[in-house]
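FAQ: What does a multi-protein file look like?

Like this. Sequence, then tokens, then the next protein.
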Amino acid sequence: MQLMYIQGISESFHRRSFLYLRAGLKKGPLGFGIGANWDAYGSEKQTAQNFGVFTRREF
């Protein structure tokens, strides 16, 4: 899980925030699982989300 919230000090409004979630399994150098991203931008907090599966190989 990774979470971030940015607010301008002098402007005092929301700049950007995001939440990244991953859950999976690892077998040797291979990893796989599911993930979700949530992003919000600007003072009106316009949002974008995506969900899916992932694979990973460690070299």
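And here is the next protein:
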Amino acid sequence: MIIHRNKGMTLLEIMVALVIFALTGSAVMKAATDHLTNVTTLKDLTFATWVANNRLTQLQLEQQWPPENNRSGTQQLAQQDWYWRQTVKETGDRQMRAVDIHVSPANNKERVITVVSTFVTQTGLRQAGQSNDD
């Protein structure tokens, strides 16, 4: 008696292969989505940090003592409007202040992306209300 072997795949084997491909495909899609989300987050964090650093540079150029507290404004960077808010806190040293710059998208001010902090000193800065001619 001659036995003919079936050279094809059974329906069960095909279904198992499809399940494996489907799981693999969904894992690849999740990884790609997570990557794109992380790239967007990193881009926003980078731009927000640049905005904060720009504000701190402007603060140094203003040379006003003490720095103005609760100041805020907007800046356009990378075709996007950013909102920044400056807070100034006293330190244990009378000639030093802690300055925090909070940055968020201008269309969602509650979503703070980054806070950059620094310290400024009175040395070499003019008193508030004092002109450069004094």
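Q: Is there any per-entry metadata?
A: Some entries carry free-text notes. For the entry above: The mean pLDDT is 89.
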